[in-house]
Please model this.
Amino acid sequence: MNLKKIFIGTLTAILFQLITVNKLVALHVAIIESQSYLSTDQMDVKWQSVISSMGYTSTIHPQITLDNTAFFATTDILLISSGSIALPANRVNTILQFLQTGKPVYLQGEYQCSLSSNQAFATLVNTLGGTFTWGGITNGIIQMNILGSFATTPYPTNNLSYFNYGCQGTGCGIQYFLERNGLFYGYFFCPPNPAYGSLIQITDQDWINNNTNDTLMRNVIKHLADPTLCSATNFTPTNLGHDTTLCNGNSLILNASNSNATYLWQNGSTNPTFNVTTAGMYWVQVSNNCGVFSDTIQINYVTAPSVYLGKDTTLCAGQQLVLNATTPGATYLWQDGSNNSTLTVTTAGTYSVNVNIGGCIASDNISVNFVSVPSVEIGNDTTLCEGQQLVLNAGSFGATYLWQDGSSLPTFMVTQAGNYSVVVSTSCGVAIDNLNVNYIA
Model:
C-alpha cells in the first residue's frame, strides 16, 4: 500500500474542503472545451457563465489539456463539457489521477452508452471502489425528476423538462439524481476512500446547450465545490417523493422500482408500487445487491372546497355587487389576479374565482350586466301628409313597453292622427313619453 500517496491525497481533500467551505479563496474550474467537435455545442461557455454567476473563476482549455497533468496545480474542479469528444485511455487516466488528488470532476455524458465519455465514467467508478453498469438508451424527449440534494441545494428545482435521449445505468455507491419511470440518467459518485474527489455525470448535453435549467447547473457546481455534500455510503434511489396533500377521492401511486430488488411496504405488501387512497405515513424497504434502503412519506387528504357566486344577474347603473367566495383555510384567485376572498363588481363582465385548499381547487363564474334608469323620447308633436306613416321607437335594453293601445313592442306604427304614448319599464324604474300626430290632406 502506498501510504505516502494516501496521506497526500487525504491532505489535499482536507485543504480543498477548508477552501470551499470557508471560502478562503475563490475556486478555479478548468473547463475542457466542447465546440471543436461541433461548433453549435456551446456547453463550455454555458458552464462558464453559470460558474461566473456563482463567484468562481474558470478557463476554457483545449481537449489536449487532458494529455498531461500540467493543469492540476491551478485547477480546483475539472469540468469536461462535452460527452461527444473522444476520451482515449491516456485521458481517462489523467482524469483518474486528478480524482486521486482529492479534487472533483464533472464528466459530461451522452445518450449512446458506448461513447467513450460514458465508458470512462463506468471505468472510473469501478476503479475507485464503486460499481456501475450501463443499461441502455431511452429515446425521445424525456422529462426528468430531480432527486435528493440536487433538487434543493443550494436552490430548489424539481424537474428537468428537456432531456433529449439518454443512457441509463445502475450501480452501488452512486447517488442517482435524475430519474424517469424508475430509470436513472444523472449520477453522483463519492468514492469510499475520502482522499479521492467526487465524480458527476449526466447522459445528455442538449439540456445544457438549450438553457433548460440553469438552476440544476448551479446545483451541480455546488455539489462539486462542497465536499460536505458527498457521502461515500451506498445509495439507492428509494425516493417516494416529498410529503404531499391530496384531494378527497384522489389516489397516488408510490413507486420504489429498482433493478433486481425486493420490496417491503408498511402493510407487508411486496410489490414495487403502492396505491395510496387514505391519509397516513407510508414507508418502503428496498433490498438489492447494494444493501437495504428505505424511505418514508406522509400523505394528507383535504376536502375539496365549494364555491357559488350566484346566478347571472343584471344591476342598475351605479349599483355594486360584492361577490363572496369566503372559505375557511382557502386561498383565492380571481379573473383579474386579485386574491381576496371577496370582489366588488362595478362594471359589466364575466367574473370568476378559483378557491384553493391544499391544492384542491373549486371554481365558479358569474355574468353581471348593468342597465341604466330608463329614459324614452319618441319625438315632438308633428304633422304628416295624408298617406304617410311614422314609426315611433321607444327601444331600451332590458325594458318592457306599454303603448296607449295596450301593445307591447318597442316600436309603434302611426297611420292616423291622435295622441300616442308609451310607458317604458325596467328593473331600475319607469319612463313615459307621448306626442300628438296630426294629418293634413
